[in-house]
Amino acid sequence: MALLPFRRQPAAPALKEGYSLKLDHIPDGASINRLLQACGDEIHPEERWSLALSRSFWVMTILDNDHALAGFVRATTDQALNANLWNLAARPGPDQVHLVEVLVHRSLAVLRRDLPGCSISISAPPQALNALKTHGYILDPGGIRTMGLRLRSPVEPEESRAWRDSNPRPSEPESDALSN
Question: Which of 2, 37, 108, 110 is the most exposed place for a label (fewest CB within 10 A)?
Answer without folding.
Answer: 2
